[in-house]
Amino acid sequence: MIGADAMVKCLEEEGVRSVFGYPGVAICPFYNSILQSDIRTILIRTEQNAAHAANGLSRVTGKVGVCAVTSGPGATNVITGIATAFADSIPLVCITGQVNSELLGSDVFQEADITGAVESFVKYSYLIKNVNDIPRVFKEAFHIANTGRKGPVLIDVPIDIQNAQIKDFTYPEEVSMRTYKPTVKGHIVQIKKVAKELERAKKPLICAGGGVLLSDAGKELRSFAEKYRVPVVSTMMGIGAMPTEHPMYFGMVGNNGKLCANRAMNEADLLIMIGARVADRAVNQPDIITTNKVLVHIDVDSAEIGKNALPSIPIVGDAKCIFRDFMEQEISCEDHEDWIETLNEYKKNIYRKRNPDPAYVDPAEFIRKLSLKMQKDGIYVADVGQNQIWSCAYHIVREGRFMTSGGMGTMGYSIPAAMGAKLACPDRQVIAVCGDGSFQMSMMELATMRQHNIPVKIVVLKNNYLGMVREFQHYNYQDHYSVVDLSGSPDLEKLVSAYDMKFIRLENMEKADEALEAFLEKDESVLMECLIDPMDLVS
Amino acid sequence: MKRIYSVLVENRSGVLCKVAGLFSRRCFNIDSLAVGETDSPDTSVMTIVSSGDERTIEQIEKQLNKKLDVIKVKTFSESQSISRELMLIKVKYNKGNRREILETCDVMKANIIDMSKNTMMIQICDEPEKIKLFISMMASVSIVEMARTGTLALQKCMEADT
Lengths: 539, 162
Fold this sequence. Notes:
The complex is a heterodimer.
Chain A: H1 3-13, E1 18-22, H2 28-33, E2 40-43, H3 47-61, E3 65-69, H4 73-77, H5 79-87, E4 92-98, H6 114-117, E5 124-127, H7 134-145, E6 152-158, H8 159-163, H9 188-200, E7 204-208, H10 210-214, H11 218-228, E8 232-234, E9 249-252, H12 259-267, E10 270-274, E11 294-299, E12 313-316, H13 319-328, H14 337-347, H15 363-373, E13 379-382, H16 386-394, E14 401-403, H17 414-424, E15 430-435, H18 436-442, H19 446-451, E16 457-462, H20 467-476, H21 492-497, E17 502-506, H22 512-520, E18 526-531
Parallel strand pairs in A: 1-2, 1-3, 3-4, 4-6, 5-6, 7-8, 7-10, 8-9, 10-11, 11-12, 13-14, 13-15, 15-16, 16-18, 17-18
Helix pairs in contact in A: 1-7, 3-5, 3-17, 11-13, 15-16, 15-22
Chain B: E1 2-10, H1 15-25, E2 32-37, E3 43-51, H2 54-66, E4 70-76, E5 81-92, H3 95-108, E6 111-115, E7 119-126, H4 128-139, E8 143-148, E9 152-155
Antiparallel strand pairs in B: 1-3, 1-4, 2-3, 5-7, 5-8, 5-9, 6-7
């Protein structure tokens, strides 16, 4: 058995079923060994998207997503995907081939110091220098990626190590790392303190972040909110932790969020932030959430607590575990009827007033229709740009998932992430919604979808502009538009026909229902182009 | 506010880079950094002196603890610790100032450890403040070159120590 066989065996031991990647000489031993395995290999069209696809797969399965690319440019291309996963705490194991270990440091062909380059975007990285370390390193990598605050781990394997004979392969049952013991269980004294505060509070509020979804604590959040009648708002990464139309849910917070959610944050007397970083997009002025209220901050990463806002009660631990502990407390709190009523009053104006031009598709109305027509448990992947803000504002999550690149805001995320999700959940509808800018950042993946038969549905909200930047230039540079015009974009109908893909064009809202039905009826790849008002604004 | 971090780390290649990178990426100051193996060859101790407001100081500790090569972080103020720095300094001398240099060395408890006809090497090991003072005194003599270890520090001895 050689190192490459051992690497594949490790992936099998971890229950990995698909690997996204792009081969090159330095990773060829691995791609040769994987032929002997049942693990599915997906040839992505550019390495960044291998990480995004693994990211999408991970988010819907809760498992570690895996990608494998070659040395040098293969490795450097994947960095944006790794950084995207890091910003959203998505567990990935990213394997990179490396030049012969004897030649390391001599700048030979396709050598890149990838462990050095990704240092600030990974939870941990390994450069394997001894073939016998492979089982331990892989075991540790999967453990590190998917425990505590999750995140990407990179394993760099020189080609000679992949080709070297391994003495004996035993996959370790347990990980023993003296430096890594994440805190999962919240301190009971702190939990009791929160219970006390809840009994005292007149206007309690939970703000749920991506951590709630990462720890699969949606159900627990709902039961908690219902049992103690505590209203919930969410950050962008927390969208879908509560069904959008749940009576206790009051929308997304932040600059691009709902007014009612922001008012709830400001007026609450007890704010429980859980699995959220209190970053600038969600909480623009951290002092607002610390004055005149008790702030409870719960996060699995202790470094996030107190980084941007100093809480009255910090709790380090996993969201699911802490909700369970809360449910075991005897809390006799009131039903917060007045508070909920106030919030319901605010919620009446949850949707911003818009005056859409009837000559175009109204993205707000379109997204609302799409979310109600798509399967209840469908997966909606929003890209980045104006389309993301509209998706956050108007998509209605029922039993499905909402995914987007929240932390890094990486354009081109939606299509590869949707592919990863579809591959993991072939029975569910998966829809990527992007703009014409973000579509062109990953349109090469239409070939991957076709080759591997991954029927993702794509909506392109087309306005011939980089809309979000155009909007910024509108407000901040008196309409001096600079480098935002997307003229020269391909005719999407011709483009997708080259990939034997179905195409639907929607020019205005008149035929939206029929178009959406045609778009959704079959489990097939379809691209739907929606012509939207180029001058439309999200705010 | 000055703060000293005594960081026990895995003695592996790249760890110094990761820790130093963490400071630069998060815009934390490094006033001084010294690294050396401990009694066990697979661990090293980094002594890092940093400064910042209370929140920064807390963040540094938390971020250090997040690094997977970090085994333990101890942090203390200058008054809670004993700190020392070793410096080798080469100065030019002549008949006129030789005596003065020797006297300064005597007062500052510095030793002359090497000499040529017109230069001498002085070794001093003391608190960082004293080192600074010594440098300023030697500046008037004409310093050729110098090397410093950076601050080394341990928490003061307590009964609770094990």
